[in-house]
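Agenda item 2: zinc ion complex prediction
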Amino acid sequence: MPIALPPGKKCAVVMSWDFDAMSAFVLRGETTPTLISRGEFGPRVGVPRVLDLCDKYKFKTTFFVPGWTIATYPELSRKIHEKGHEIAHHMWCHENAPDLNYDKELELLEKAMDVIKGVTGKYPVGNRSGGFANSNNTIKLLQDHDFLYDSTQMADDFNVYRCRIGDHGSPSEPWVFGRESSILEIPVAWVIDDWPLYEFNPQPRINPGLHTPSQVFEIWSQEFDYMYDRVPNGVFMITMHPYISGRAHRIMMVEKLIQHMMSRPGVWFCRGEDVARCWKD
Ligand SMILES: [Zn+2]
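Presented output:
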């Protein structure tokens, strides 16, 4: 296992937040007041609650933020950075990377990187593509721009691994695996993402959502418990959204989950960047 955690640490937890605000709505042309207000709940209510929670339990984490969102909320983005949290790349306006050709993905990546640097003083080292969807070019683009890690893929649950470039295949032949890249994957999963579990979405694709926090606590705490007990040097990367888990009954569950995980010795609450820097070849 090529992850060397700090002394005394048994596993790592990244309580990551995709601070989208209304970017995904705007991308789809959904700019009427009620649709905008759904995303606006994030910066207005969710992010302040999340920052308070991180302060209360004294840990830093990672916010994946589209460049467009940073340009719309520069002061709040700067506050996130000044509190010591990582601001990582999350597309320009929450585009679906497979919809972009190479040149467009490159252009938007560099545009978003510049906006992040404008707030943090340095280029991002982490990426999460919108909708958990990398294109066939994403990993190469990240490697070419000196990123350390991606957090968009799902080939493992609690182990960091290297992303590949150049996979190909078809139903008529076995899959051909490409070469390993320099980009580390801190894997994600829809079961530890709050969007499918909570967010009622009537359009453009129906998602029933609206699980209760106790149902989500059951899933997330058991994922953590399995890792804690059985996976040496495991990394638990949860994906949440301020406009979803920032709601009152849900943020209370997030706090309960933090307390559950902090009750076990040797759990390191950290940023994605911190995990990536623990990688040893
Ligand atoms: Zn997002």
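Discussion summary: Residues 18, 20, 90, 94, 130 surround zinc ion (CB under 6 Å).
Owner for follow-up: CH.
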